[in-house]
Amino acid sequence: MKIIFVYCLIILFACTGSEAPQFIKVKEIAYQTGTSVLWRNNGVFIDSETKQEYLYFADVTTGKDKIMFFTVDGELKQEVPIKEVLSGRTVNGVVVKGWDTIIIIEKAPPEYNRLSFTDRRGHLLRRINLNHAVFKDNPWDMFLYGHSPLGNSLYGNYLYLSSHWNRRIGEPRIENEAERIQHFYREAYQYPPVVQYNIETMECKQAFREMWRTFCPDTNLSFSYGIRFTCENGLLFISSNISSDIYVADALTMEIKDIIKIKSNYTQIGAKPYSRGNQGQFNVDELITGQILSVLYDQYNDLYYVTIRHGAASEDQAPFFSEQPFSVQIYNSGFEKLQEQYFEGKQYDARDCMVTQQGLLIKHNDNKKDYNPEVTKYDLYELKK
Question: pTM surpassing 0.85?
Answer without folding.
Answer: yes
